[in-house]
């Protein structure tokens, strides 16, 4: 049957295509037809335009004023750059934007580079929040952070066996600790990325939060910037989240579970997924 | 050529945002930022409504709105290449960001399906006419509104959800807890009636 001779059927298909309910092989056949025929294309475009107006008919509602503040800060945080660098800036910014969205939505792309971007994004947004209109300073910081981001990404790439990653954040979603796990070498690596430093008479303790049962200690953190702990894959696999609590110096026994406040937590993600 | 004064105003704002890339002294970046603010003030409640309709939760919708305006800030220069009214162009951006958001969540969270069920449980609650709002709507949107108004409320709801949330027959049936056959029938009849009606506005 030649669809072009069946105007009504063509219009029906175009409407279902644009609505999105035409699926599977029928959709692919329609797309192939549209590539061949301007009539089919036109029909589909008309319906796409019509349905696009559906967005205009939704009842409006004022968003929280915070949304504009976030947008303003993110826009302002873009460094002033010469025209030729705009594309690069846009790409960076895009990454940052996505990373922020990912972070806030608790979603995660899984790629190591994205993890680095999350760190930069979250730090940056926090910095920006607290500093309001000091744009020049923010721009400088953003450049520094971009550099750190690149370093971090390079560092992560140089460690090919990392299979698990977690970004632990405080209750304001500011990233404070990057955790990576290399099961082959049974090595958990923690990098402090926030400004937090515990008092001299306290220790931070890392906990696995298994799906059932209480938290299990993965170790007590030294005060260094980068901390290495040993853990078997069994202790980490299937654990959906990690947390860090503030404990007396030297930590507490695992069986008792955390006694101090949980300062940071975050989802543990397999990088290979 | 847009003749609606409101559309003309929105298009001018989008152009000013796009012009910041030119870095010409007469169009400083600050002007682009001011235009973005103005665009936000005049469109954010409508677009927030769209985001809310797609993702169903306020904090999610706010994330989506933020992404959408940053998106508009970056791609304002592309608007001129589109033939859509400005609100429809921005509405589609919001819908895309909202769908991205839901996909990311779905792929990320095992409990997303459960959350989704809660979220949409109240959407096709019966013959409630559903919110439709033509203030700020383009002429094209008014035509669609006129035709959708002639459908049964539940047909209109199912069509509007199918589009806004990009759902298949099966997904609609699942989310709305309706038999698949019912969903298919409503969509088919709704589309059929809509076709007849929209043809009059073509």
As for the number of domains of chain A, it is 3
Mean pLDDT of chain B: 84
What's the helical proportion of residues of chain B?
over 70%
C-alpha geometry of chain B: globular
Shape summary of chain A = elongated
| CATH topology-level fold name of the largest domain in chain A | Immunoglobulin-like
CATH topology heading of the largest domain in chain B? Rna Polymerase Sigma Factor, Chain: A
The class by helix and strand makeup of chain B works out as mainly alpha
Helix content of chain A: 40-55%
CATH arch. level architecture of the largest domain in chain B: Orthogonal Bundle
Distance between the termini of chain B: 17 Å
Count of helical segments of chain A? 8
Polypeptide structure, described:
The complex is a heterodimer of chains A (273) and B (202). Helix content of chain A is 44%, strand content 21%. By secondary structure, chain A is an alpha+beta fold. Chain A folds into three domains: 3-57, no CATH class; 66-157, no CATH class; 164-270, Immunoglobulin-like. Chain A has an eight-stranded antiparallel β-sheet. In chain A, β1 and β2 form a beta hairpin. In chain A, α1 packs across α3 (38-52), α5 crosses α6 (112-131) and α6 (112-131) packs antiparallel against α7 (135-157). Chain A is elongated, with a radius of gyration of 25 Å. The model of chain A is unreliable at 81-93 and 99-135 (pLDDT under 50). Chain B has nine helices and no strands. Chain B has helices spanning 5-19, 29-55, 58-75, 86-108, 112-120, 139-149, 153-164, 169-176, 180-199. Mean pLDDT of chain B is 84; it is low at 120-129.
Give the key terms.
heterodimer; A: Immunoglobulin-like; 8 helices; 8 strands; B: 202 residues; Rna Polymerase Sigma Factor, Chain: A; Arc Repressor Mutant, subunit A
